[in-house]
Amino acid sequence: MSTMNDDRPLQNTADNHDPPLEKDFSNGYGHGNLNNNNFTMGAEDSNGGALNRIRTAGSISMSPELFEKLYLSPETRVKGDLRKTFGNPTPIALIGFLLSLTPLSCDLMGWRGAGGNGASDSAAYFFFGGVLMILGSIGEWIVGNTFPFVVFGTFGAFWLTFGGTLVPSFNAYGAYVTTPAQMAGQDGNPGNPLGLQTPGFNASFAFFLLFMGLVCFIFLICSLRTNVVFFLIFLSLIGAFGCLAGAYWNLALAYENAANTMAAKRAGRLVVAGGAFTFVTSMAGWWIFFAIMLASLDFPFSIPVGDLSHIIKGASEKQKIKDAV
């Protein structure tokens, strides 16, 4: 009969090669099974080891599909442990985008008498669309996710630009008021509202929207390596920016020639169409935001986003397959 000293500390028999914590994917752990012995807490685990597993229960391993859902980007190898040190910045950027775009889409469609190109939500464009998306972009940059870093940074700057255009003190449209009759009584007022009715302002602002559509087209191609919902977001944004650019060009024609009523009517229809496209974008965004939050909290159920990362293989993955052959 063997004897044992009760004061002796419990031995930790956990494998030295346990999978990393939630966001450390650099060691290639991505297909762990929760039924594996390495994930089982028993009497042989040390107190510290058990606490570590309780703290990270359900998030010890992560498949490439789950990584793509959480970060909207295929898994890439990065140096260091920043992904397990910092929280996931993706949801905060998404909520900033959604709480700016969703009300704007309703404004553009004129629901419940809304209108004014969303001017009532100028502060939201700064603090939700601008601040939260820039913070999310910086967070993605820190953890090494290049694609969402560029996407969120681009749209954060877009919302700051759009909000600034609507603020009178920026004089974005007031600068186009040049005739003495229009300037009368507006001395010292940099935001002369008559500038909104000038052909120059409307035609010029349309180019900004046009090239935002071009950026979204590039993002659309890149999103083929992410998921179906993210792809639909950029596809609908291309339609939205195209319609809104056309609306502003038609407004320029209408303001240039007051008799051109067809251009004014066409502009109105294009604004509504642009709002419809952005509403589709918003609904897809809310879906993917919900999916990310469920995955982040390890809910027992999930909603699909249509992972595409396993369909379109990366160049490095194809090279590995080629080298293996």
Automatic annotation (TrEMBL):
Annotated region (Disordered) at 1-29
Task: Tell me if Transmembrane helix is a UniProt keyword of this record.
Answer: yes
What keyword terms does UniProt attach to this protein? Membrane, Transmembrane, Transmembrane helix
- InterPro entries, alphabetically? AceTr, Gpr1/Fun34/SatP-like
Q: What top-level branch of life does the organism fall under?
A: Eukaryota
The UniProt GO MF terms for this protein read: acetate transmembrane transporter activity
Q: Which residues form a coiled coil?
A: none
Q: How does it sit in the membrane?
A: Multi-pass membrane protein
Which residue stretches does the UniProt record annotate as biased composition, category Basic and acidic residues? 1-25
Q: Name one Pfam family in it.
A: Gpr1_Fun34_YaaH
Please state the protein's primary subcellular location. Answer: membrane
Q: Where in the cell is it found?
A: Membrane
The membrane-spanning stretches of this chain are 92-111, 123-142, 149-170, 201-221, 228-251, 271-294
Its Gene Ontology cellular component terms are:
plasma membrane
Q: Which family does it belong to?
A: Belongs to the acetate uptake transporter (AceTr) (TC 2.A.96) family.
Q: What is this protein called?
A: GPR1/FUN34/YaaH-class plasma membrane protein
Organism name: Letharia columbiana
Instruction: Recall the taxonomic lineage recorded for the source organism.
Output: Eukaryota, Fungi, Dikarya, Ascomycota, Pezizomycotina
